[in-house]
Amino acid sequence: MESAAAVLGRKWHPAIIYHLLEEEPLRFSELDERMHTVSGKVLSDSLKDLEEKRLVERTVSDGRPVQVEYHLTEHSEALEPVIREMVDWGERYLHDADSPEESIV
Questions:
Q1: Is 5 a residue whose pLDDT tops 70?
Q2: Residue 58 and residue 68: Cα distance in Å, rounded?
Q3: Comparing C-alpha atoms, which of 15, 2, 36, 12 is closest to residue 86?
Q4: 7/83 Cα distance (integer angstroms)
Q5: Closest by Cα among 66, 68, 86 to 25
Q6: Given strand 56-60, what is the order of strands in its sheet?
Q7: CB of 35 closer than 8 Å to CB of 23
Q8: Three-state DSSP class for 76?
Q9: 71 touches 30 (CB < 8 A)
Q10: Of 2, 46, 55, 97, which one has the greatest count of Cβ atoms within 10 A?
């Protein structure tokens, strides 16, 4: 449990995996657009961490201009049921929580 929580407990990791489950591959700018509340630096650091943990692969094209795309690995694709459950739980219990001060459940 602790190992999984160390990866999925990072603030933006589940969101990145979610967006890549929805559509992949995605370029950095496309992920950045979808995750409008996170800074580019934090997104970049999170992608590097996910890449180190072998949950995201980074592909660099040879063309001009160079394009960098991110896609899921087999390990992160196996997280799909977990991510979907997190989305369902959030929609069920957090949809009315507009601010952190409100009760979650």
A1: yes
A2: 7
A3: 15
A4: 13
A5: 68
A6: 26-27, 68-72, 56-60
A7: no
A8: helix
A9: no
A10: 55
pTM for this predicted structure: 0.82
Does residue 103 register a pLDDT over 60? no
List the domains of the chain with CATH numbers: 2-93 (1.10.10.10)
- Residue 85 half-sphere exposure toward CB, CA atoms < 13 A: 5
Q: Hey, what are 49's tokens?
A: 């961490």
Average pLDDT, rounded, for the chain: 87
Q: How many CB atoms lie within 10 A of CB 52?
A: 9
Residue scoring higher pLDDT (103 or 5):
5
Q: Can you name the residues that pair with 80 across neighbouring β-strands?
A: none
Residue 74 has pLDDT above 80, yes or no: yes
